[in-house]
Structure prediction request, 273 residues.
Amino acid sequence: MAWQPCVSGLDKAARSFTRICNMRYQIELAYEGTHFGGWQVQNNTITVQGEIDKALSQVCNQTIETMGCGRTDAGVHASYFVAHFDGPENIPIDLDIRLNKMLPNSIGIKKITAVNEDFHARFSATRREYHYHIHRSKNPFTANTSWWLSTELNVAAMNQCAVAIIGKHPFQAFCKGEIPNGNPMCEVFIAEWTITEAGYTFQIQANRFLRNMVRALVGTMVEVGQGKISPANFEAIFMGGSRSEAGASAPAQGLHLTDVKYPKASAESNPVG
Prediction:
C-alpha cells in the first residue's frame, strides 16, 4: 500500500480556505456619514466598514473583512470610496445589487470588480481628494453635509494660504494625535478655495493625509478669511509645526472624500457579472 501523507484538520481547513477564498475584489462605493462612527470597525458604534463586512459575510457565507482606502472620521462623507476584500471565486454576479438591498440607504455600492492580487485599496493609492463645503444661508437640506457659516469670508486671503501648502511639506501643525510612522510629510497637488452658489468649497488633493488634517486646515484658513489672523500668521503656524497654534478643526459634516487615484497597472480590473 502506498504511503499517504497525514493531513491535519488545520491543513484541511487551510486548503479549503484557499479554494474558496482565492480572489481579490475592489468595491467602489459612496456613503453619507452622519450616523456612522467613521469608516473603520470600532466597538460599540455603527461604522461603514462594519455594515459592509456584515453584509458581505452573509452573502458569501464566510467571514469577509474589507480594507478601505482610508479612515474617515465620524460624520465625514464619501462620494467616492474604494475598498478591497478577498473572497470566493464564484461570488454572485449580482453581488452589488444584493448588498445594496441589505445595506442602509446611507451606503451605496457602485461597482465590484475582480482585481490583481497585489492591489491594496489603501497602500496602492497614489492620490486622494477631499472637498470641504460651507453654506452661508441656513438650509435644513444641507445641515448634515455642509458647515453653516453665515460670515462672509475673504477668499483671496484664504487662497494665499492654499498656495502656501502646495508641494511637499511637513503637516504636523494640522495633525490630531500621533503622526503615523513619525512621518509628517505630505505632498499637496491641488489646494484651492472657490465661491459657490451656496457659499464656499475647499478642494485639496494630496498623496496622503494626516489624521484630521483637512478639517484643521479649513478651520485655520477660515480664521484667515474672517480676518482673525493674516496669511502671514497662517504660514508661520504652518512652518512652526505646533497644533496648539493652529485654529480649531472645522466640523466633520462639511468634509467629503471625492476621489482616490491608483496607478494604471494596479487599477486593472474585471467587472463582476
Observations:
- DSSP finds seven helices and eleven strands in the chain.
- The CA atoms of residues 130 and 258 lie 5 Å apart.
- The first strand starts at residue 23 and ends at 31.
